[in-house]
Structures are given as C-alpha cells and as structure tokens.
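Quick question, first post here. What does this chain look like in 3D?
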Amino acid sequence: MTSSRDDVARDVGRLVVAGQELRDLIRESRKGLQKGLDLLDRGVGIDEALRALNTAERRLAMTEHLSEFEECRHRLRLSITVAGLEEGMSIGDIARAFGVSRQLASRMAKQARGRTLTGPGPGTDVPGADLRSTWHHPGWGETATCRG
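> Answer (accepted):
Ran it through. Tokens below.
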C-alpha cells in the first residue's frame, strides 16, 4: 500500500515522462511541417503532400500524446488533492493552490475520493488513492490512460 504522498511523486514522474514524449513528438511534427512547406514550395499537390507526410498517422499520434499528457495532468491534480486533504488542506486551500473555483476543487475532491487503488493482490484496495483509470477529455472525444 502506498501513501498519498507516494502517489503524488509517482504521478509527477508520469507527467514528466508524458511531457518529454509530447515534446519529442512536437519536435518531430515541426520537422514534418517543414518538409510539408518544402513540398508546397516545389509545387507538389496537397493530396500527394499529405500522403508523403503520413498525415493521418501523425495526427493520430499527436492526438494520443496530447490526450495522455492531459490525463497525466488530471491524475496528478487528483492525487495532489487527496494528499492535500489528508494533510489538512481545505477545499478552499486546494482551489487557491490550483487557481480554480471552490466548486471545481470540490468536484476534484469528490472524484478523487471515489476512486480506489487496486494493489498486487486481493484485499489491497485503498479508497481514494487510485487515479489510474481512463479519463475522457470532453473536447476531443477520445479516452486516454496515463501510462506508468
């Protein structure tokens, strides 16, 4: 069984990795965009340029990485909320720390408290600790899972 502070440290690490992966993909995307400009400058048609750049695959990879990054951020906010509440922070304190409304902080606390961490075997469920489940980003219509 891990402590809520351990969960925060784990989730920070996962966010760092997701951020590094997203940064690397953005750098690759920039190279692809430059290649696209070069193709357009040479008069290549849009259809041919899109196929040459593997646009569909690039778009899917970017969407997946953005979703994963956002899921890791969300999970970290929830694990910080659990740890903060356990250490005596109020919902108002959490709202001020994140720069969000008390209502949103209250919803985060409710969501965080409603999760459970399934450990390595039977009888290891710890209320309020798991933030590993998938999360749906309402603007993207996709579901992401923060790996780690």
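The first helix runs from residue 4 to 41.
Residues 98 and 105 are 8 Å apart (CA to CA).
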